[in-house]
Known about the structure:
Layout: E1 2-5, E2 10-14, E3 19-23, H1 32-49, E4 53-57, H2 67-81, E5 88-92, H3 97-109, E6 115-119, H4 122-130
Parallel strand pairs: 3-4, 4-5, 5-6
Antiparallel strand pairs: 1-2, 2-3
Helix pairs in contact: 1-2, 2-3
Amino acid sequence: MIIYQSGLISLDYDPASDILYLQWPDVQEFLIPEIRQALRILVDHIKSYDIKYLLIDSSKASLEIPPEEYKDVLKEFGYNLSKTRLQKFARILTTNLNREKKVEEVKTEIAFPINLRSFSNKQEALAWLKERQQEKV
């Protein structure tokens, strides 16, 4: 079910699996403040719905912003995500090696506490997200 939609993002939530899915759009025509706001909205919905699993598909998105600004946006997003109860975060990789390098740099710099993995396709990412660790009773 779509829990939020704007000109930039659409948040598709499956309550049965507790997975929130976002297909990241081409953002070359959007300004950085719009991107930051979209990511804040994403985090707000993760908090509001107490979502534990997130899948962002960046595979088809192009991003035309300077690398350092991209890194700053990622840091803010990572920091805000770390304030949620999110347990697993799956990403579908882009073909842009520079972007992927920045993601890894930020993950290390902010000591990202959420289990984050990158995948080449949606099926693998969903399978990983659906693997639930045994809860202690």
